[in-house]
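Lab notebook, design round three. We kept the backbone fixed and only want residue identities now. Task for the bench partner: fill in a sequence for the structure below.
Input structure tokens:
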């Protein structure tokens, strides 16, 4: 039985792991939130890994507030970079494996085509810089590790773009949404299942990088419109150009290529529209 430590259990992905754990009888999950396990404490990490004889670590812990990271750069670096360094130091030279969740924000968004795993990183905000440094700790290590970059994560949990649009559209007649940021939506539930697939099937754990998103790309406006259309709500989504400070903080195009997981695992994730429909249905059932 594989013994898997999920760090960051109260995030969207961590909560998704909690929902799917009963589907995998060959795994024993140890889900730990920030109060139970502080990634910035190498002492706590070491105790947890050894006490529970962990085989695989999935690091979902991250400081993800892009705007706050501009002001709280030290905290973002401590979690997104130093925390990863702690894990790497503890598992280096051991058989313990690491799946580290990273982000499209390691790229600057200037590329006009999809980003590949081996494209040069060039983050344009503090959040992206801290995540890029976390990746660097892994890439220069001698560990059994995989970096999974994902983007535009949504779920029925916590705060995310999809939940925000769903909530606002029930009380507002119109919502203005920028239409010049392009990316690839990812359902956290699908990403959680993919991580288990990696544990069972993937062979290259030599600091490799994979991209995972749902299939297809879109922009923020079209994603918001899809939410409203699927829910059949009487709310108009109005496209606007991004003219405020966020234009400086977020990559314009962060569409990730997922060809590598198709080539390596013969696996293509479902379309983001289908995953969105699944998520919205779960949210509606939850709210009844």
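Proposed sequence:
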């Amino acid at each position: 039985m594989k013994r898997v430590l999920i760090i960051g259990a109260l995030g969207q992905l961590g909560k998704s792991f909690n929902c799917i754990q009963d589907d995998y009888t060959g795994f024993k999950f140890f889900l730990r939130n920030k109060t139970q396990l502080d990634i910035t404490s190498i002492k706590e990490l070491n105790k947890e890994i050894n006490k529970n004889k962990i085989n695989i670590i999935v690091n979902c812990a991250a400081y993800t507030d892009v705007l706050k990271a501009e002001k709280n750069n030290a905290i973002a670096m401590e979690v997104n970079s130093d925390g990863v360094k702690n894990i790497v130091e503890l598992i280096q030279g051991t058989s313990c494996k690491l799946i580290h969740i990273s982000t499209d924000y390691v790229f600057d968004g200037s590329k006009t085509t999809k980003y590949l795993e081996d494209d040069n990183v060039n983050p344009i905000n503090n959040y992206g810089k801290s995540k890029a440094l976390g990746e660097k700790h892994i890439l220069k290590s001698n560990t059994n590790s995989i970096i999974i970059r994902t983007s535009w994560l949504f779920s029925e949990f916590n705060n995310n773009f999809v939940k925000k649009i769903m909530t606002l559209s029930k009380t507002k007649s119109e919502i203005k949404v920028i239409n010049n940021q392009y990316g690839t939506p990812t359902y956290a539930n699908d990403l959680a299942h993919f991580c288990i697939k990696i544990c069972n099937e993937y062979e290259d754990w030599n600091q490799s990088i994979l991209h995972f998103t749902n299939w297809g790309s879109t922009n923020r406006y079209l994603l918001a419109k899809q939410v409203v259309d699927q829910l059949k709500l009487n709310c108009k989504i109005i496209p606007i150009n991004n003219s405020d400070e966020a234009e400086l903080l977020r990559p314009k195009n962060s569409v990730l290529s997922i060809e590598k997981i198709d080539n390596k695992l013969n696996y293509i994730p479902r379309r983001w529209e289908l995953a969105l429909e699944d998520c919205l249905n779960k949210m509606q059932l939850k709210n009844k």
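Keep this in mind before ordering anything: The two ends are 38 Å apart (CA to CA).
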